[in-house]
Amino acid sequence: MMMRRINKNALFQQLNDYLKNEKRELFQQTLMTLHIQDQVDWFQKLEEKPLHQKVYKYLTAEQLADIFQGLDVEDQHEMMEEMNRVQWIATLNEMASDDVVDYLTELDEEQVAPVLDEMDQEVASRVQQILEYQDETAGAIMATEYISIKTTDTVKQVMNRLRNEAPDAETIYYIYVVDTNNELVGVLSLRDLITSDPDVLIKEVMSTRVVSVKTSQDQEEVARLMQKYDFLAVPVITEAHKLVGIITVDDILDIIEEEATEDIGEISAVRGATGTDVTAFEAAKKRAPWIIMLMFLGLITAEVIGQFEETLEAIVILAAFIPLIMDSAGNTGTQSLAVMVRNLAIGTFDKKNVWRVIRRELMTGMMIGLGSAMTLAILIMIFYDQDLVLAGVVGLSILITLSISTVTGTTIPLLINKLKIDPAVASGPFITTLNDIFGLLIYFSIATSMLHHF
């Protein structure tokens, strides 16, 4: 029998009506039938502020924590301002430690300590542990709500523990095994646990092939590792091999989005100014340094044109093709840049094949350049009185420029990566301006050498 599809908008309106009419039980029952993300969507659409207070009154701290964790930072701040201090602290106590850290890192530094003092000391201790790790490392994004078991436990004992502790754990799909020194020695999947004899010791059914990450490991490396092994979670250990936390796949998805946004910002020279909540002043402040630097590079472009002033005066028609040369060079270089930055970011680039990659990009540029040169030569012959020399100059310039532009877009991020700097900083505007300079030098050098043939 097919279930009737529920109209979410109608259900959202029903929840609003229950709140307005103070039907607390019906409101709670209906809200709990929704997926947590649908609860978040409903709350975000609840624009009547007096109804927010009823939500805080009718829901438990645990239920409020589920909604709070799904909100963006701006809405989280607004929600916390609307709640009284007791509710606020109680909600934080019900959240996963890594989610509390995500919120606290958005507060002013002087606000964090008082909040930790008011929180449950056990929860605060776990949060403080995470806060001590460097940003964008495994330790800084891990959750400390995990279940670890001993090699001497029986399957039956672990099953009994899971019944009691599973609701508070971040995940139970993987259960990590430690020795008496809390060192990670094995892992057990929930499937293996359920299908094992209740009286068997854990050491007999666990796997000792455990893939783990260190607390100091970069979050991008963690993301690539989890993607490689298709993990739902990965254990985090110290340098002494002691288990201190886990990272789950939902956190990794957030990191992938965060890193992708960061790389887009770097490539387009708008790092830190991609969010819709960034003010015009903040966006201008973050973009201005790149624009000013590129403006000075643009002066070099102007100087290149100035150096070939006599050529331009002699053959004025050459000026008509300057934008074409510059745009083609910049666009081709940016394409190669995007390909190389992506390969470096996801770890698919093999350093042993660096010359093969550069050679491939050069060949790609030459093929694109040859096709463009032939097309332009035909168009110039048609529209410029069959000027064979002009067609040859523009066509040859495009061929050489596009060939060099692809190599530039490939090698610069490789050089930057060699210096242990994020290759995404080799931004599109920078590559474009650099290739503009190369393109103009090539164009006017060829034109000057052919001047007596015009």
Describe the structure.
The protein has 3 domains: 8-141, MgtE N-terminal fold (Alpha Horseshoe); 148-265, CBS-domain; 280-453, Tetracycline Repressor, domain 2 (Orthogonal Bundle). It has a 3-stranded mixed β-sheet. A 3-stranded mixed β-sheet has the order 4-5-6. It is mainly α and 454 residues long. It has helices at 8-20, 24-32, 36-45, 49-58, 61-70, 73-82, 85-93, 97-104, 109-118, 121-131, 138-141, 155-165, 190-195, 202-205, 219-229, 249-267, 280-307, 309-314, 322-346, 354-383, 388-418, 428-449, and strands at 148-150, 174-178, 184-189, 213-214, 233-237, 243-248. β5 (233-237) and β6 form a beta hairpin. It has 22 helices and 6 strands. α15 packs across α16 (249-267).
